[in-house]
Amino acid sequence: MERRSLESTAAIYYYLRGLLSIPVGAVIILAGLGNLKWGPLRHAWVFIGFLLAAAAAYLLITRYYNENYGRVTLSTRAQTKGAVATAVSAVVVAGGVQADWSLDLPLSLTAASFALIMVVYYAVGVGLRAHHTIICGALLASGLVPVWGGVGADIKINLGLILTGAATFATGIFDHRALNRAFGPAEEQTAGNSNAQV
Q1: For the segment 28-42, what is each residue's pLDDT rounded down to a tens digit?
Q2: 43, 50, 171, 174: most buried, per Cβ within 10 A?
Q3: Contact yes or no for 21/172 (Cβ under 8 A)
Q4: What is the pLDDT of residue 127?
Q5: pLDDT value of residue 188
Q6: Is 67 or 10 the better-scoring residue by pLDDT?
């Protein structure tokens, strides 16, 4: 197998470990609800408890993937592309949140900016699939439909976070299904488990 083909396969595996998106999406949703002082999440210790549970779930899911599909270290080139995309994404999201905070636009630029960075994340990493386009497109549309006028900045930003968390959660489920289609169910992978660096 050629090196470029191996790198492509490694990237597909790395970026489609979708179950990892479930605790991430849950934390984003809980952050939005906590910021809105919703129910028990108005207490910081409750959010911290959820955060610790999500971190534990993330580690268990990582272990599941490592044990059932093996480990992959991305090439330096792929890691560099990912780091640049992450830095650009942070600037885009910060800009969207700041715009929602300081401008009274009838849009949720928080939701729209997260949709854009999700598209960049997948486009750089593994290429956009149909479910990425649909889910990110729905998140982008929800942010750009001019129904957010007159909503306070705090509510607009946190509802944008909740929508983003839901999109992250949904994308993760479909990414895991795509991983299973590409590499087979975990049971089939266990026998051939390996560690690789490409």
Answers
A1: 999 999 999 999 999
A2: 171
A3: yes
A4: 83
A5: 55
A6: 67
